Amino acid sequence: MMINDSGIETGRESQGAESVKTAEDWAAEPKKATIEVNGHKVEMLEGPASGLEIKEAAVKQGVGITVKFVLQQEMPNGTGKVIGDDDKVLIREHLSFTAIEPDDNS
């Protein structure tokens, strides 16, 4: 792929003709969203993700947690909602989560 002088991403087809990405092409590409986990920015693809997937992405991107931590979504009204490993969240920009070590009372 190449960017032409107009800033449009183009590609070369087998006959050498130039093709331009359409709005449908751009819309079909996965979009990334930046969320926050324990104050750290974490990039994920927009769309549904499990609590475990959110924690795995945070671990891979250097947030100091493990997948054993308890994940909580910070709600707009100031409350929190615990997100289980199998619970689904619709990932979009500006979501915020906290992850804390589980209590070990054994």
Description:
The chain is an alpha+beta fold and 106 residues long. It folds into two domains: 1-29, no CATH class; 32-100, Phosphatidylinositol 3-kinase Catalytic Subunit, Chain A, domain 1 (Ubiquitin-like (UB roll)), CATH 3.10.20.90. The protein is 15% helix and 41% strand. It contains two helices and ten strands. It has helices spanning 23-28, 51-60, and strands at 2-3, 9-12, 18-20, 32-37, 40-45, 47-50, 70-74, 80-83, 88-91, 96-100. The strands form three sheets. Strands 5-4-10-7-8 form a five-stranded mixed β-sheet, with helices on one face. Strands 1-2-3 form a three-stranded antiparallel β-sheet, with no helix packed on it. It has a two-stranded antiparallel ribbon with strand order 6-9. The N and C termini lie far apart (57 Å).
At the fold tier of CATH, the topology name of the largest domain is Ubiquitin-like (UB roll)
As a percent range, the share of strand residues is 35-45%
Distance between the termini: 57 Å
Under CATH, the homologous superfamily of the largest domain reads: Phosphatidylinositol 3-kinase Catalytic Subunit, Chain A, domain 1
Low-confidence stretches: none
Approximately how much helix is present in the residues? 10-25%
Number of domains: 2
Radius of gyration: 19 Å
Shape: elongated
CATH class of the largest domain: Alpha Beta
- What is the count of β-strands? 10
Question: Any idea what the CATH architecture of the largest domain is?
Answer: Roll
Mean pLDDT: 86
Biggest sheet: strands, sense, closure?
A: 5 strands, mixed
Number of helices: 2
Sequence of strands across the biggest β-sheet: 5-4-10-7-8
